[in-house]
Amino acid sequence: MSRSLVRDYRDSLRYPEFWIYATWLEIVTKYRRSRLGLFWALMPPALYAFGVGGFFSYIQGQNPRDFIAHLGIGYIVFRFITVSLSEATTACTGHASFILDGRVRLTDYVLRVVAKAMFYLIVSLPVAAAALAVSPQFQWMGLVTLLPALLLVVLNVAWMGAIVAVIGARLPDVHELIGSILMISFLFTPILWHADQTPADTLRGAIARANPLYHMVEIVRAPLLGEPIERLTYVYLATMLVVGGLLAAWVYRRFARYVPLWV
């Protein structure tokens, strides 16, 4: 029997007990034995924003107060996306016992991965707030668009996560492939550099703008720092959501029923 991606996501959101509790339990068991606890979750964004950001700002001759916010926000959004997609590749195989026991609503396992990544994003908010507080570019009006922009990012992550979860159940090597692609994509995402350093009418700019993470980071960060958002970003993300969502729905309907056999 074929399954519907939209229906399964709807049911997962209507009955979130499994993936919310599983996420909470994983986080609690990971940090409860540590003396510093959740402080360790703050370390990566803090080190990137104020450590790497300060270092690269001097290398590039930029104002550290501006670049720290640029890098900090970019890294936090980038980490949310990459953690979600990387762990989604093993979402089904990691829950094989549940799937073989008859729990075949695969969106529960994708949402567990996304919820975990969202937890780390929320924990990183104090770092983001500190970085924005020292930035003279910070625009309060950017907070108005923050939630809609994050929602757009989450929706795109949701359909991509569904695809890589199904494919990852069939091809375990997809985990390594996605990890390598995401690692390379860091260089083509404006985190250590600014978007205006690669104009759209240049080859470098065209290559960078072909990267979906470029637009997913910019849609969140640019309004907060008073930077313009290119029209291409709106078109790219809207098209990606519609076309990608349709593709994910087809892949899920066609292949999700085989996952219990693959895991």
TrEMBL record:
Q: Which domain of life is it from?
A: Bacteria
Membrane topology per the record? Multi-pass membrane protein
Q: Which UniProt keywords apply?
A: Cell membrane, Membrane, Polysaccharide transport, Sugar transport, Transmembrane, Transmembrane helix, Transport
Subcellular location, record wording: Cell membrane
Q: Tell me the ranges covered by the ABC-2 type transporter transmembrane domain, including all copies.
A: 22-223
Question: Any stretches that span the bilayer, and where are they?
Answer: 38-61, 109-134, 140-167, 174-193, 233-252
Family classification: Belongs to the ABC-2 integral membrane protein family.
| Name recorded for this polypeptide | ABC transporter permease
Organism placement in taxonomy: Bacteria, Pseudomonadati, Pseudomonadota, Gammaproteobacteria, Lysobacterales
